[in-house]
Write a structure and sequence with these properties.
Elements (H helix, E strand, L loop, with lengths): L16 H17 L29 E4 L5 E3 L2 E3 L1 H13 L5 E6 L5 H13 L4 E6 L5 H9 L1
Parallel strand pairs: 1-4, 4-5
Antiparallel strand pairs: 1-2, 2-3
């Protein structure tokens, strides 16, 4: 059951050579263009902490703490989110080193920490390091589950 009728009849085979040529040309174009894509936000991966960390913090360090109940403290002084941006702007306007630490509980949603990151960037902070708060009562929490 062939569709061909003699030498000049209808030919039912599809010639896929032009499609393969187009496919290969597109593949080459995408392979060349992919490394040229620019990324807007460079990401620096934090380095592992040294084995012995100093317990004392430099007095000129700026540390913003956020607790699970969303209370915010700037260097252990309670502050509201509305006052935080103006305070940080004033502090970093006078400083040459524009580094800051944000310390939060590991159970905080990332969106809440991102609000602090956004406020810090608008205030003129250059580098921001994220710190995790250690749980204070881990032994009492485990004993509650056993009763």
């Amino acid at each position: 059951m062939s569709m061909s009728l003699g030498k000049k009849g209808v030919k039912s085979d599809i010639n896929i050579t032009p499609y393969i040529d187009i496919l290969l040309v597109l593949l080459i174009i995408f392979m060349v263009a992919a490394p040229l894509k620019q990324h807007d936000h460079p990401v620096r991966v934090p380095q592992p902490a040294p084995i012995t960390q100093p317990k004392n913090v430099k007095p000129d360090s700026i540390i913003v703490d956020m607790d699970l109940d969303h209370t915010v403290r700037l260097n252990q002084q309670p502050i509201t989110l509305e006052k935080l941006e103006s305070t940080l702007t004033e502090v970093f306007r006078r400083r040459a080193v524009k580094n800051m630490f944000i310390r939060g509980d590991s159970d905080l949603p990332y969106g809440d920490v991102f609000i602090l990151l956004d406020i810090a960037k608008r205030s003129g902070v250059g580098d921001i390091a994220l710190l995790e708060k250690k749980a204070k009562n881990t032994s009492s929490d485990s004993s509650k589950g056993s009763h």
